């Protein structure tokens, strides 16, 4: 990336002595040449005026991220401390702070994609937040399509503490799996089957799942066509992956 007068450019191709850059905004046709030291030489063609405003906020954020990465490679301080210190020193605008909020703060290298592994990861996040005087309670979780992760989130975030019960209690595990299996049942039968899920549970187990049933009934049962795949030939996207 190259920034000139607040506008971002991406490298298009290079020769031994000249590098060609195009505006990072794909709707803009400005192209320029620099030498191998990224010093401006000339514009290419007649288009020298951008069709958009400078990306000053994005430049702010990119510069701060670069400083964070450089410090993280050489500094033994905790990553959270590095992030907080660099943000304070940068004196970012409100717009830049809002954009910086998307910066990843945790990377997890997992051994597999089982729900139990995701549950373990979420438990770690809950636990590690406390010493930092933080509380892990995300209002929005976005992911690619990972059924095991979705199950773990539903168990852990929507119903905190339920994951251990799910793993240890056969009856609760069976009941939750029945709820998940509704996606494979012909759509017209789902409303009549859902109320009967959990009938074999005793009162303590039913109480344990009461919040989950309320959540499922109030949210997912209102949009059955979105998640029911009974009429599809391909019921998962495994072939795509």
From TrEMBL:
It comes from the Eukaryota. This is FLYWCH-type domain-containing protein.
């Amino acid at each position: 990336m190259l920034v000139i007068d607040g506008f971002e450019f991406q490298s298009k191709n290079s020769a031994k002595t000249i590098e060609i850059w195009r505006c990072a905004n794909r709707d803009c046709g400005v192209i320029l040449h620099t030498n191998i030291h990224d010093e401006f030489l000339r514009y290419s063609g007649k288009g020298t005026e951008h069709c958009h405003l400078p990306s000053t906020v994005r430049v702010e954020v990119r510069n701060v991220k670069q400083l964070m990465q450089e410090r993280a490679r050489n500094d033994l301080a905790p990553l959270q401390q590095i992030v907080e210190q660099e943000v304070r020193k940068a004196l970012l605008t409100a717009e830049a702070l809002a954009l910086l909020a998307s910066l990843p703060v945790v990377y997890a290298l997992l051994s597999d994609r089982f729900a139990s592994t995701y549950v373990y990861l979420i438990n770690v996040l809950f636990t590690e937040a406390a010493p930092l005087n933080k509380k892990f309670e995300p209002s929005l979780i976005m992911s690619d399509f990972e059924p095991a992760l979705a199950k773990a989130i539903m168990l852990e975030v929507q119903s905190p503490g339920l994951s251990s019960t799910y793993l240890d209690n056969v009856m609760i595990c069976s009941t939750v799996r029945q709820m998940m299996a509704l996606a494979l049942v012909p759509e017209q039968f789902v409303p009549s089957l859902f109320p009967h899920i959990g009938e074999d549970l005793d009162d303590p187990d039913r109480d344990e799942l009461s919040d989950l049933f309320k959540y499922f009934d109030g949210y997912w049962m209102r949009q059955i066509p979105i998640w029911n795949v009974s009429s599809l030939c391909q019921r998962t996207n495994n072939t795509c992956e």
